[in-house]
Amino acid sequence: MNELIYFFNYVVVAGSVTGSIYAIGAVGVTLIYSILRFAHFAHADMMTLGTLIVLLLTMAFPHAGDALGLPTAIVMLPIAMAVTSLIAVGIDRAFYQPLRSHGVKPIVMVIASLGVTLMLQGLIRLFSGTGAQSLYVDARKEIFRIDLPGVTRPIILTEPQIILFIVTIVAVVGLHLFLTRARLGKAMRAMSDNPDLARASGINTRLIITLTWVIAGSLATIAGTLLSLDVAFKPDLSFFLLLPIFAAAIVGGVGHPYGAIAGGFLVGFAETLAVFNWSVLLRPIRDSLPTWLELPNNLALVGTEYKIVVPFFILVAVLIWRPTGIFKGKVI
Amino acid sequence: MTASSQQQSSPQQPSPQQPAPQRPAGPPTRALPARELLLFGGLAIVVLAVFATMGPAYSTRMLVEASCYAILALGLTIQWGYAGQFNAGIMGFVALGGFSATFFSIPVNPAFWASDLPGRLGWVLLAMVAVTAIVFGISRLDRIGVPRLLRTILAVVAGLISYLVLISWLRSVTGDIESQVEFIGGLGLPVWLGWIVGGALAGGVGYFIGHICLGLRSDYLVIATLGIAEIIKAFLKNSDWLTRGTATISPLPWPVPDPGEVGFLTARALYLSVTVVMIAVIFFLLHRAYHAPWGRMIRAIRDNEVSAAAMGKSINRRRQEIFVFGCILMGIGGAALTSFNGLFDPQGYLPLNHTFLVLVMVILGGPGNNLGTLFGAVLVYVIWIMSGPLALSLMHAVTALGAHWFDWQPGNLDSRALQARVFVIGLLILLVLRFAPRGLIPEKVKHHD
Question: What tens digit of pLDDT does each residue of A237-256 get?
């Protein structure tokens, strides 16, 4: 039983955490893709930017959350979402809009987004330095231990993880309701299906593009903040997020929000399972194994230092066998 | 879809009132036009100014590095400029080239070859080949009547088990190598052999990536190359048994006499002559290829894929070809750069220095124009080198003011100042794309009426 609890703590919980982060990030990427038709590489840095804003606000008002009983960072999240959305719209107006009106190829937009990536990275590191900082300024993470009868090892959940699950569910349900019920959401889906037809039927495409950036910026802030609450804020956060997020978006089918969510969890769990040391689970049956079969101490599929291989492998596998993604995305 | 500025200019040209027959069919102009002369003259003045202020030894080093970057930039210009494929993982190919140069050129480690470790390592590698063959065979079992589902399950299970066995075997061997002899050492062969193999390795990885991505949307190639570059770096950084990892390897031998023998300036000048000869050869070959039917076909594919396919051109194979050529050049350039630095440090390969800097060189100089690419490479590298001290002094001035006014005391100033350069490079990319999408020396698109 102890081993199962260990498995739960280190795979189910950890996989859900990374899966949720990737899912929220991939939804942003896929939305931008379906409306603007290019892979937005600066998305991971937008996450970092949103988190940096949360961090700065938290440092300015470290005790704002005490009244609500929540971490200050969560209280500051809506403000940071608004600011990040504004910045995202500003970046679009300043850099992407002119290129779009020139009618450049999508790949040029991708290069432009790489330029934006560098700009954001430079700015973020200029302001925050290069070290890691906790989002719990002047406060302490609460850790919940749930003891089950008959086992010595407790199930461990931390406060940020619980917040993360709640916020992820709220965000996903909210996005679903928006896309299926709201007028603007339907307009957005129409535009992603056929931009020309959408424009011809009187949809304000400029407004939709702005809205897309607002949603993408907000989601990026949520994902980055929740991840940093769980671990810590690092300026090179984006570096570890970029490949998994794109793998998630492609696995789910590009331009397909629900697919992106599924892809996010798939990539998150795959990563966690791949670095999990399986010999822990086999330990109870070790004594009953025949003598010629000696189990090594490390049965992880890949070492933690090669974690980045996992999303890449998934990406390659999907591109080879099913380039449209598991949910039949729009574009290959 | 295909409405970049390069194509926008072409339909305007064959207008009826244009005197078409006056245009000769050969190269458009024999003499170098004023634009190129002016730009290169300005560049020469800048380089001379650097020579005058920083001393010849420093400036020669800068020129050698710029020439290595020029090889990288030529690699990217055939991928991005000739064929419209964007490679965002130049760093990985540079690192591969650098590793190969290091591995071939550094002295043999006698302790390793005297032990039983080479044999064990050889057995593991042999077993890997054998297991790969077996698993591949199992995956083809459906040819002899095994149901497809059963074949898939068998292949996956066999692959997983043999992978786990092999990886634990490899871990034990490499662990012993690290604890007994530190690392496997080099081969003690001439450097140029390492450069050639580095190019071949990079080309092999390029083939693999291109094979997967080139039939798909161009965005996927960007993602895949970004990923493979990070994986190559992670592998080189963590394989202590092969590369000493973070402990780094130095010094690396040069293909020309070392500074210890003939002095800094002469050695660097000799090295520079080697790289310049390489660039001249590459440039000549590229020039011939560009104006050959092959080059026209590549540009046709870039500019109008559908009609090129309708003319019977094999789009994916040509794309594959050019992507691999570009990667080979990047591997060779990276090998030359690493050998010159005299230090193999896997952590020293950074996306900014080895991917985005090259990107700026190409798009600023003129993608698809070899001369423009060379110009961009030297110019951007001079600015880049000079901007380091400039950014530092600027940062010190700003923080002095900040401390004076707001009592602002940021830590590790130097690393922050260097981050300012990241911002500038990003801004430069965006400005060039916006205001000079064809670069300073644009590609000359020939028109046949």
Answer: 887 889 999 999 999 888 88
**Cross-chain Cβ contact A246/B430 below 8 Å:** no
Question: Taking CB atoms and an 8 Å limit, are B227 and A320 in contact across chains?
Answer: no
For this complex, say whether ipTM is above 0.90: no
- Tens-place pLDDT, residues A283-296: 777 677 666 666 66
The pair of structure tokens assigned to B426 is 């990003």
Do B413 and B280 share a structural domain? yes
Say if B230 falls within a structural domain.
yes
- Closest residue of chain B to A41, computed from CA coordinates: B223
Stretches in chain B below the pLDDT threshold 70:
1-32, 404-416, 448-449
Please, which residues have CB within 8 angstroms of residue A231's CB and are 6 or more apart in sequence? none
Query: Stretch A61-77: mean pLDDT, rounded?
Result: 82
Candidates B422, B424, B427: best to mutate against A (most CBs of A within 10 A) is B422
**Long-range contact list for A188-191, CB < 8 A, 24+ apart?**
A188/A31, A188/A35, A188/A212, A191/A35
Q: Are residues B76 and B128 in the same domain?
A: no
Residue B117 lies in a domain: yes
Q: Which domain, by its residues, includes B383?
A: 33-109+182-435
Q: Please indicate whether, in this complex, the C-beta atoms of B3 and A103 are within 8 angstroms of each other.
A: yes
Instruction: Give the residue numbers spanning the domain of A283.
Output: 2-321
Does B234 lie in the same domain as B378? yes
How many whole angstroms separate alpha carbon B314 and alpha carbon B193? 33
Helices of type H across B55-147: 56-76, 90-105, 110-114, 117-139
Residue A330 has pLDDT above 70, yes or no: no
Contacts of B2 in chain A (CB under 8 A): 105
- Render B54-75 in DSSP notation, one character per residue: H-HHHHHHHHHHHHHHHHHHHH
**Do B282 and B164 belong to one domain?**
no
- pLDDT higher for B65 or A127? B65
Q: What is the pLDDT of residue B357?
A: 92
Answer whether B416 sits within 8 Å of A126, measured CB to CB. yes
Residue B253, domain CATH: 1.10.3470
B66 near B336, Cβ under 8 Å? no
How far, in Å, CA of B292 to CA of B190, rounded? 34
